[in-house]
Specification:
The structure holds two protein chains of two kinds. Chain A is mainly alpha-helical. Chain A has six helices and five strands. In chain A, the strands form two sheets. In chain A, strands 3-5-4 form a three-stranded antiparallel beta sheet. In chain A, strands 1-2 form a two-stranded antiparallel ribbon. The chains are: A mainly alpha, B mainly alpha. Chain B: Keywords: Cell membrane, Ion transport, Membrane, Potassium, Potassium transport, Transmembrane, Transmembrane helix, Transport.
Chain lengths: ~220, ~575
């Protein structure tokens, strides 16, 4: 009995020592070495792909954000600013709606099932809003033109992209709000549409932050 | 080009890349585990550990090594989380509570990586890199070690030792656990992970040690970002089929998986070692064609599941998805339906559990496919190591079934499959269904566990079934609507992960020990030719029928009811 207990203790000791040595290798040396290489070769990417415009950081090209009107007193929730292209809805855990400081970023999806009436309501409400918000005099968005990404929340809740189709149906509204010609804004969207990588990886997409930065530059020119 | 074509091309690109890599990597791994030489860094590690890497171990000694090392891992990781509040470099996060610390420690040591916490709001740099990421390496290396021990059980025979320069004949030895553990980590996982991590950073994954900081926004105000050693953890998270995300959104988070290319790279990393191990197996048992049969079985099931998943996700049945026009709820624009479908199948047919899209919002049948993938025991291609030993246990059963049909004593790779071997294989098969069904039934029968469910109806049942399927099979993905951070779920999923990992390992190592003492029987006219395509057919059938049917009633209540509504 005594013998087997000392044996077990010795074995556990060996296990613990092996763990500590391997922790040094894989938990200290490995991440430090990768960080060193990453910071030397790709400092911008390793530090969050931040984008600067007008001399200040305006976000990360990889993290979606909201483009809202300045909050007013007594306002219920944020109101999207129609001047700017809008990203995907974020009804899940993902928080890309922070215009205030000190809220810790959290990522995540709604996890609602395809047959959950709450999700059905969210999708239908979002579709009605997309149609209403993007229809301007002389241009009416049809329900069949609204793509799925415009009415669903992403996996991270921080999706930086929208589909080219969602960008296209926003063109008339954005042009009207900013007093720009529709063709000019449409060209802006076309210029910022990224195709599939090597022609087959992923889906075509438009980075909303980069598009809005270019839009702002265009507005400032006029 | 339409999204369906693009999805199929991405699948073909993966198949091509895996076909190219599995032969050199598989042969290389066979050399790693067969070599007599130790690298200098390995000698340092053995000296620091105080173990002899050259002692041959019987199956019981090997098992004791596995259990001792894993117990130390659970203890260390538990203490690290409990002490987080006083550790430097922890971003001022508090210590984690006892139930959640136990759950998380077990989860990462068992290669499950089930997470009942929000990564970016709970774990600081020290726990992430020196605790969780370390287990990503070593739990994978333990899985590979056990698989190699089983392969040695088939490959070794008493004669091997008898021929050794006049020393006494010893039998039944399976190699040295410490040496297998260290070599798997140092020679296989570390170099591959380092290269993959740098590639991920080059495409946008984070790799720094900055704290939580504000970043300006376009319309004013600021967003809060977490810093972290994300890419280095992401690489081993996929390569070791672990799956525990740095962030709550896991591989859907742009800082973990920034582009469509990294998405394919991460799927490749998930699959590359499990598929390549079939080559290692073939080389070590002296017939690469035996490896191809196993590979073909895995590939058939994996491809079939991907095809089914793409079909149901592109068809997007379900009221909300039909209203939206595509199954994009919980999916990222850059990956689309195609890339997300391949990822979902690959992560649940292995023991990974990382997600680039949220399975709970898939179509009813799509969610069912992810569940069934785990229920098959994650053997197509399965977790690193656990996939190979799981499939070899199924092969033993398939050989036995074939033996019953022709009335001969079955044999596999020259080893007789007798009563003892069959008892061990059957015990292996029964562990996870018992855990899944008992814990799910208990959760449904008791009054409070049901409160954790998010969605009503059949999907709510699926959330609970998914949780215990994921935990017992050491997968780690979730129908994440379930609030699993309760004492009930933290404790029961913790137990399911522990028993679902180590009981099967006991049976596998016992099987290996009982095979290793056998002298091989010569091939005769009555031997089932297990290197032929016919055996692949038999094996696919055995996998689908035996494990699939076990779960059919439970699946009918959950995803089938939802998908066929």
């Amino acid at each position: 009995m005594n013998n087997s207990m000392t044996h077990t203790a010795r074995l556990l000791g060996a296990g613990l020592r092996a763990l500590l040595v391997l922790t040094l290798v894989t938990g200290v040396l490995y991440p430090l070495a990768v960080t060193g290489v990453a910071q030397a070769l790709f400092p911008g990417r390793a530090n969050g792909s931040e984008i600067r415009a007008d001399g200040r950081v305006v976000g990360s090209s990889l993290i979606g954000q909201r483009y809202d009107l300045p909050p007013e007193k007594g306002q219920q929730g944020p109101r999207p600013d129609p001047k700017w292209f809008q990203g995907r809805p974020a009804n899940g855990l993902g928080v890309n709606s922070i215009n205030t400081r000190y809220t810790l970023l959290l990522s995540g999806a709604t996890n609602l099932a395809a047959d959950n009436t709450v999700l059905v309501r969210q999708v239908e409400d979002a579709k009605a809003a997309v149609i209403k918000d993007n229809s301007v005099p002389g241009y009416r968005v049809r329900a069949s033109e609204v793509p799925a990404d415009a009415v669903t929340s992403s996996g991270s809740g921080l999706d930086p992209d929208i589909s080219p189709q969602y960008a296209r149906i926003q063109v008339h509204r954005v042009a009207a709000e900013n007093g720009l010609p529709v063709t000019r804004v449409a060209k802006l969207v076309a210029d910022h549409t990224e195709g599939r990588t090597l022609g087959f990886m992923g889906e075509p997409r438009v980075n909303v932050l980069e598009l809005n930065i270019a839009l702002k530059a265009l507005v400032d020119q006029h | 080009m339409g999204p369906v074509t693009a999805g199929v091309l991405q699948l073909l690109a993966l198949v091509g890349a895996l076909a190219l890599v599995h032969i050199p990597l598989g042969s290389c791994m066979a050399r790693v585990y067969s070599s007599k030489r130790h690298l200098r860094v390995e000698k340092w590690i053995y000296r620091g550990t105080g173990v002899d890497p050259d002692t041959e171990m019987t199956w019981t000694a090997y098992l004791r090594g596995v259990l001792a090392f894993s117990a130390a891992g659970v203890l260390f990781l538990y203490l690290l989380q409990r002490l987080q509040g006083v550790l430097p470099g922890s971003l001022h996060f508090a210590s984690v509570g006892p139930a959640q610390s136990f759950n998380t420690a077990v989860s990462f040591v068992t290669n499950t990586n089930w997470q009942s916490y929000y990564g970016e709001q709970t774990m600081g740099h020290v726990v992430q890199t020196a605790g969780l990421a370390v287990q990503n390496f070593v739990s994978a290396a333990v899985g590979m070690a056990v698989a190699i021990a089983l392969v040695r059980g088939f490959a070794f025979s008493p004669a091997r030792f008898g021929s050794r320069g006049g020393t006494a004949v010893r039998t039944g030895e399976l190699g040295n656990f410490w040496s297998d553990l260290v070599r798997g980590t140092v020679r296989i996982l570390l170099p591959l992970a380092a290269v993959a991590a740098v590639v991920l950073v080059a495409r946008g994954a984070l790799q720094n040690f900055s704290g939580i900081h504000g970043v300006g926004q376009f319309t004013g105000g600021s967003q809060q970002f977490n810093g972290g050693a994300v890419a280095s953890q992401e690489a081993i998270k996929e390569l070791g089929t672990n799956g525990g995300g740095y962030f709550n959104a896991n591989s859907a988070h742009p800082f973990e998986n920034p582009t469509p290319f990294t998405n394919l790279l991460e799927i490749f990393l998930i699959l590359v070692i499990p598929f390549s191990l079939t080559r290692t197996f073939g080389v070590m048992v002296g017939s690469v064609r035996q490896g191809y049969t196993v590979l073909a079985t895995m590939a058939t099931i994996w491809l079939g599941f991907v095809a089914l998943m793409m079909w149901t996700e592109f068809a997007h049945h379900g009221p909300a998805l039909q209203a939206a026009g595509a199954a994009m709820e919980g999916k990222e624009v850059r990956f689309g339906v195609g890339g997300s479908s391949i990822f979902a199948v690959s992560t649940t047919l292995t023991s990974t559990g990382a997600v680039d899209s949220f399975h709970s919002s898939f179509t009813g049948l799509g969610g069912g496919i992810t569940l069934l993938g785990m229920m098959l025991g994650e053997i197509a291609p399965g977790g690193v190591g656990s996939g190979l030993y799981g499939m070899l246990v199924m092969a033993v059963i398939a050989v036995f079934i074939a033996g019953l049909m022709v009335g001969r004593t079955p044999e596999y790779l020259g080893k007789k499959i007798g009563a003892r071997e069959m008892k061990l294989a059957a015990a292996y098969l029964l562990v996870t269904p018992a855990l899944v069904l008992v814990f799910t039934a208990a959760s449904m029968a008791l009054p409070t566990p049901g409160h954790s469910v998010l969605n009503p109806g059949a999907h709510g049942f699926s959330e609970v079934l998914y949780a215990f399927t994921s935990a017992s099979n050491n997968n780690g993905s979730a129908f994440a609507g379930l609030n699993a951070n309760t004492d009930w779920y933290n404790t029961t999923t913790g137990l399911a992960m522990l028993l679902g990992r180590f009981l099967p390992m006991v049976f596998v190592l016992a099987l290996a020990g009982s095979l290793a003492v056998q002298r091989p029987v010569p091939v005769s006219a009555g031997t089932l030719r297990t290197e032929k395509p016919l055996f692949t057919g038999l094996l696919v059938g055995a996998v689908l029928i035996i494990t699939g049917l076990t779960y059919f009633p439970a699946l009918a209540l959950g995803p089938l009811a939802e998908g066929l509504a």
